[in-house]
Amino acid sequence: MMKHAWDSYAEYAWGADELRPITKAGTHFSATGGLSSTGVTIVDSLDTLFIMGLMDEFHKARQWVATSFKFEGDFSVSVFETNIRIVGGFLAAFALTGDELFKVKAKTVVDKLMPAFNTSTGIPCPTVNIGRKNGGQCEEHKAVLAEAGSLHLEFAYLSEITGDNAYLDKVQIVRQALRKLVNSKGLYSNDIGFKSLETYRDEFSMGGRGDSFYEYLYKSYLLSGKQDTDALDMYEHAIEAQTKHLLRTSKTGLKYFGQIHCGSCDVQMRMEHLGCFVGGTLALSARDTKDERGYLQLGADIAHTCRQSYQRTPVKLGPDDFEFNGGDLDAVSGIFSVKAHFLRPEVVETYFYLWRITKQQKYRDWAWEVVQALEKHCHTATGYSTIHDVYDSNPRLADNQPSYFLAETLKYLFLIFSDDSLLPLDAWVFNTEAHPLPVHGKK
């Protein structure tokens, strides 16, 4: 599957950010405003190619990075997307190979992002113009919790391998600023101010806009060799608050994290595919404790719920969000839901962690169900495509092969069926784009 997706990209979209498999053409990634291509699929795929032993493909990608990768021009980029995909991709490639080229490229990109942190709070502006010395004028009025809180792993590792603590210092300031934004219930709002410490809306969720903030808190603790106890403390309090105020059980017994969209609103009986990552993070955080909070079981419960969102569609692939309206309508999209399947990784990510931690065969079985469904409904002659409606038994293709499909979805599926000695969990931490970074002190 990886070779088919990669070869199709290489033939029809080489150097572009992503492949349009139906059109057989490349496309710019929206994180660059559609104004320039930085070969996102190439950089995002480096470590997957290496891990899978596709060395001819890896060396072709490395050669492109050496001769053609450019991160320059008068345009703005998303700090978050650039960090998790491009910086994360380079750092993982360096960690796996020791090739100095990738370290140099990672540092070059991050240095172009640094002006984003020149705000009164230290919370970075969501976008930065990489062609202007001061990063350009920040037009946004607010930042997103997940974006501001998902920089720590990459910046901390870059400081470690370069010996320059400037990168770690920036994200430490971000963390302390975010810590001041927690409300009286222990919840963090998804919309925050980066020019002044304030929340813009009382919107809380474990899904998009919040998700990887919680993931990075625990993983920062792991990456530091369990020295960053501040991150662990924030994680435990945040999960405790989310569990107390947002965790719900449907009438049919499905557990899920709901959402709040205003301070006085009830919890919405709705969950996003993006939020399915939390099953794996909960299971991961149960490994190093006595698990008095029952995180492993809760992670397994979330995995079961997210699988039901797949099983209750004719194509056996889940929608982008789903609701809990009782009986057969639990874990099924509602009228205003997004019924598309975007080849996202979060469900198989959770299967991966639960397989590694519990060794229960069902998680491999569930992953194989996903493989079969992807092959049947998303496979095209020239790559893999997202689909418009998972409730259509013959779904229409959406003509998009996201870079994260190669970076995350296929990598997690591959690792589920690999030996534990390949990227063991006590030695590697995966960023939110599934790029593995080595735990401090491990070789």
Provide structural commentary.
With 443 residues, the protein is mostly helical. It has one domain (2-438): Glycosyltransferase. It has helices at residues 2-12, 40-51, 55-68, 79-97, 100-113, 145-148, 152-162, 166-179, 211-223, 229-245, 278-286, 295-311, 346-358, 361-377, 403-416, and strands at residues 18-20, 25-27, 76-78, 127-129, 143-144, 191-192, 199-201, 247-249, 255-257, 270-272, 321-324, 330-332, 379-380, 383-384, 428-430, 436-438. The strands form seven sheets. It has a three-stranded antiparallel beta sheet with strand order 5-6-7. A three-stranded antiparallel beta sheet has the order 10-11-12, with helices on one face. Strand 8 (247-249) and strand 9 form a beta hairpin. Helix 2 (40-51) packs antiparallel against helix 3 (55-68), helix 11 runs parallel beside helix 13 (346-358) and helix 13 (346-358) runs antiparallel to helix 14 (361-377).
- Supply the CATH architecture: Alpha/alpha barrel
Radius of gyration from the CA trace?
20 Å
**Secondary structure category:** mainly alpha
Topology, number of strands: 16
Q: Say what the CATH topology is.
A: Glycosyltransferase
Counted up, domains total 1
Whole-number mean pLDDT: 95
Strand fraction equals 5-15%
Strand arrangement, largest sheet?
5-6-7
CATH class membership? Mainly Alpha
Unreliable residue stretches: none
Biggest sheet details: 3 strands, antiparallel
The total of helices stands at 15
Task: Using the alpha-carbon principal axes, give the shape.
Answer: globular
N- to C-terminal separation?
30 Å
